[in-house]
Design brief:
Blueprint lengths: L15 E10 L5 H7 L5 H6 L7 E12 L6 E6 L2 E6 L7
Antiparallel strand pairs: 1-2, 2-3, 3-4
Length: 94
């Protein structure tokens, strides 16, 4: 049985995701439209609308998953194929 490096995440109830890295758009890199066609569920629509659609490709350096349900502010951070868990301390004022 193979194990995926992504299984360590508790992804059942994620409240937010932040992605950090290099972003490229089809405005400067028109070849991104052809690349997007490989992954698009409706390739014909992408071909028809190619003059009106802008593609954004993000090559991530770091991805932060936030488990913010029920006051839990635990962040799971994926950097260089390693997962780091970090708990944020929040002062609650009532």
């Amino acid at each position: 049985m193979s194990t995926s490096k992504y299984r360590v995440f508790r992804l059942q109830k994620i409240k937010g995701v932040q992605v950090f890295g290099q972003a490229h758009t089809s405005l400067k890199h028109s070849e991104l439209i052809d690349e997007a066609k490989k992954f698009a569920p409706h390739k014909q629509l992408l071909e028809i609308q190619k003059d009106y659609i802008n593609i954004i490709k993000i090559v991530p350096d770091k991805i932060v998953y936030l488990d913010a349900l029920n006051g839990d502010r635990t962040k799971q951070i994926l950097v260089n194929d390693e997962v780091i868990e970090k708990e944020d301390k929040i002062l609650s004022i009532h």
